[in-house]
């Protein structure tokens, strides 16, 4: 088997709008496409099978567990693994760079960062610190896993180092603003779980994100969020974060779609996370044991947290 075989893993739930587009974007360089579906009720599975993808199904709890289950249970044989969301696209210039560069990389290179750009209301959001977002999405099989976190999970690699490729890596969801806010409401719940986990030491500690094992950008953002941002009262932190993005990082240059995006994602979402932490903590602080707090958080969020208690 040559050293540039790539398996692509896509997690799905009701992604008939996006899935074929995502699979076509990787068809020129992938030799395996695995769709891990959370029992979709639309045509997602049908579309995946018609394209020639292998489909496995598992009930969803969170992104990290879903993806690591795919790594452990799918018997992938390719040398490289690519994590791709259903609403993401590998553009032709990046596909060409992957094809040309992968066979010649040193074996000490075990992970590859991609520069993701975000399309919102048909506009590329270039400012507000949103481009480029460096994400480790391609790694040598056996060298990478997704952090076991409820939110803001990253791929972390070991026993080597990472490089960054150029080229178009596009996040372009075709759904409306109602979908966007509903999705971020769910994200906010999961992020609140993660913050309270750190506050009360509810779950097993995970290895820290490092610049060597992921990207310096992701590591720095995690440090600032967990060591500084989360300790500032949320009405203040969310407002100043929005102003930092929209003014100092020039988010206002993104026009009409930009003010909607930066306000919703940079203020409303951050405020919502803080509000949920506040709400859940009112209950959790009345309990003294880890077991009681985990069970209370399950009742509050509707998630089966699956902690070893």
Task: Kindly describe this structure.
The chain has 309 residues and is of the alpha/beta class. The protein has 2 domains: 6-172, Alpha-Beta Complex (Spore Coat Polysaccharide Biosynthesis Protein SpsA, Chain A), CATH 3.90.550; 177-301, no CATH class. It has helices at residues 19-26, 44-51, 63-73, 92-101, 177-200, 216-227, 234-248, 255-284, 290-301; strands spanning 6-12, 32-37, 54-57, 80-83, 88-90, 109-120, 123-125, 133-140, 144-146, 155-157, 161-164, 169-172. Strands 1, 2, 3, 4, 5, 6, 7, 8, 11 and 12 form a 10-stranded mixed sheet that branches. Strands 9-10 form a two-stranded antiparallel ribbon. Strand 1, helix 1 (19-26) and strand 2 (32-37) form a beta-alpha-beta unit. Helix 5 packs parallel to helix 8 and helix 5 runs antiparallel to helix 9. It is globular, with a radius of gyration of 20 Å. The protein starts with 5 loop residues before the first strand and ends in an 8-residue tail after the last helix. The model has no long low-confidence stretch (mean pLDDT 93).
List keywords for this structure.
2 domains, ten-stranded mixed sheet, alpha/beta, 9 helices, single chain, 309 residues, 20% strand, globular, two-stranded antiparallel ribbon, Spore Coat Polysaccharide Biosynthesis Protein SpsA, Chain A
